[in-house]
Amino acid sequence: MARIKGGTFVPLYGAGKTAVPVKGFQLDKFPVTNAEFLAFVQQNPKWRKSEVKRIFADAQYLRHWTTGQSIGTDAAKINNSPVINVSWFAAKAYCECQGKRLPTVNEWEYAALASETKADATNDEKFYQRSLEWYSQPNPEYLPSVQSSFRNYYGVYGMIGLVWEWTADYNSTMLVSDARTTESNNQQQFCGAGASSATNVKNYVAFMRYAFRSSLKPNYTVGNLGFRCAQSINTQLAKR
Prior knowledge:
Layout: E1 2-4, E2 7-9, E3 20-22, E4 25-27, H1 34-43, H2 75-78, H3 88-97, H4 105-112, H5 125-135, E5 164-165, H6 201-214, E6 225-226, E7 230-232, H7 235-238
Parallel strand pairs: 5-6
Antiparallel strand pairs: 1-4, 2-3, 4-7
Helix pairs in contact: 5-6
């Protein structure tokens, strides 16, 4: 895992400029792969395609696998690719099985601000242009290896350029009205549909992520949605 030093950041969404604190944490260097998730379902039969309850995963769960216990004939091509078509419940269960957890939205966004050379690439227009270019590309037949995307400042791969990723509080953006124009204390929570009024590349990139997350339900599975795990840093270890 990569250690992410704590700090503050100004989210690239909403009208406010209030910095959000993020405690130091650890984040998997790579998204979870098909091979890793296969090992998990083999050890935990209730998460196999044939066994999982629909309340925890929809009918498209692991649809790119041949069976619940086998990736199938495409295994050689996708063993080391990010696992997709997994629900939030399944992703959460996997992380907990590893003694970890899903990252929060703020942790994920904080780590995703890093380019190859900067911990905070907020003012790097080219960095955000790369994100937009990826968002505009159709999904390939086979996703590339988790090592294929760029390695950021923290040593984390694929925050941009591989798949969208689940977060622990992915639905924190779901509100009936726009929190920016109400008396809500949480300026981060607003409907992702506001992307249509984004005026620059940075805001548009963030709006796209939040719009996507706010459209999800925990049992949904999507062909370009994966996940990675995070871990809190022990207070005593953090002082070392």
